[in-house]
From TrEMBL:
Domain RNase H type-1: residue ranges: 1-79
Pfam family for this entry, one: RVT_3
Top-level taxon: Eukaryota
GO molecular function: nucleic acid binding; RNA-DNA hybrid ribonuclease activity
Transmembrane segments: none
The protein's name in its UniProt record: RNase H type-1 domain-containing protein
């Protein structure tokens, strides 16, 4: 649910800034399906969810699934987002994700091991 709220907020911000090209890479494949079919939006978020689906359809919009390992920087930013209560804009890479950002720039692979 938190990730859905984050995606809804991202679409609302893109709309407020008149961004017409929007590509969201999302960790949840179910959430990608929700964005493609407004019938899957939970009732508690249905009004905002339906509005976001409508806003997305009026843009060059793409939502795709990416595993956490595929974008550790995004996963780190999502974790930061859970701890803050307001819109935050960084002009430099946040220190919490600096190491994974450098690894990404160096094309280092990332893995997740499940025991």
């Amino acid at each position: 649910m938190a990730e859905l709220c984050g995606v809804i907020r991202a679409i609302e911000i893109a709309d407020s800034k008149n961004w017409n090209n929007l590509w969201l890479e999302i960790h949840s494949s179910l959430l990608v399906l929700v964005l493609k079919s407004s019938a899957l939006v939970p009732w508690s978020l249905s009004n905002r969810g339906m509005n976001c689906v409508r806003l997305a359809r009026n843009r060059n919009f793409l939502a795709s699934h990416v595993y956490r390992e595929g974008n550790q920087c995004t996963d780190g930013l999502a974790n930061i987002g859970l701890t803050i209560d307001r819109l935050t804009i960084w002009y430099d890479t946040p220190p919490q994700i600096l190491s994974c950002f450098v690894d990404n720039r160096l094309d280092k692979p990332s893995y997740r091991f499940v025991i």
